[in-house]
Amino acid sequence: MEKIEHSTISTNGINMHVASIGTGPVVLFLHGFPEIWYSWRHQMLYLSSRGYRAIAPDLRGYGDSDAPPSPAAYTVHHIVGDLVGLLDHLGVGQVLLVGHDWGAFVAWHFGLFRPDRVKAMVNLSVPFLRRNPQVKFVQGFRLFYGDNFYMWRFQEPGEAEEDFGADDTATLLKKLYTSFSGEPPCLPKEVGFRSIKAPETLPSWLSEEDINYCAAKFSKGFTGGLNYYRAADISWELTAPWSGAQVKVPTKFIIGDQDCTYFFPGIKEYMHKGGFKQDVPALEEVVVIEGADHFINQSRPEEISAHIYDFFNKFN
Predict the structure, then answer these.
(1) CA–CA separation, 190 vs 183, rounded Å?
(2) How far is CA 241 from CA 92, 131, 238, 247, in A?
(3) b/e per residue, 130-151, with b = 16+ CB within 10 A?
(4) According to the model, what pLDDT value does residue 315 have?
(5) Beta strand pairing status for 26-30 and 53-57?
(6) What does the pLDDT look like over 247-261, one tens digit per residue?
(7) Which residues of the chain have pLDDT under 50?
(8) What residues are labeled active site?
(9) Is there a contact between 17 and 86 (Cβ–Cβ < 8 Å)?
């Protein structure tokens, strides 16, 4: 881990922390919520030892990158803009792109907006979500799950922060990293995440050292990460020109069968009965890993690293 280098670059009006290791074709890793570059540590070491340059930024709002205060500064256009600026700063024309959770959501839009900059893509946990022109993104989930759905609970500035503040950061991360398996969380306001009991024993893929490292990087709080949810419906408005557009980047998609995303309404049918392939015509493979949860890049590091490596080798 000590071989991973760290730097800060200026892009799209913010300072972005970037972790990197290795030489060769560039693989750009995009983390999710509530994570930082560190969630890709296993894949970075694996690919860098096999002839790739692995780069993983803290996305805006996270870790050692800047966190603008306004939710409106977290649209998918802002995040993709940050990444294009990062590639320009590094002098990289095209990348092999990997995303998980919100990082996958951003990666899909990176491929949609700038396919010229993405050679191929592996996304985890969150499939491409076709824009519904009739209902906003978060509102659509609210209509199905009701007001207690976690994405809706995250919308009001300060509310989730207060809920999260009932625990110290390390305890909260233990809860969050073990809460997104099976049905998506639906928690009444008066109950919240503070009502969830932290696991007495961490899963085998997560150590106290991992938790403490990440907790230190959330010392400024979780508002930056929560703002992705608060900007989601703004992104829905701004992506109207891309309604019906396809992502035409060669892609592999991986999900665990215990991932909460796999339980979202209509997702299994969309993924396995032609809708996904219609929206992503260069989708080459969908992998469903039995018994795997949401944080699959950390809980199944060797398996996921090998999937990424095998797929990207086709393009070099």
Answers:
(1) 20
(2) 27, 10, 7, 14
(3) bbeeeebbbbbbbeebeeebbb
(4) 95
(5) parallel
(6) 999 999 999 999 999
(7) none
(8) 101, 229, 294
(9) no
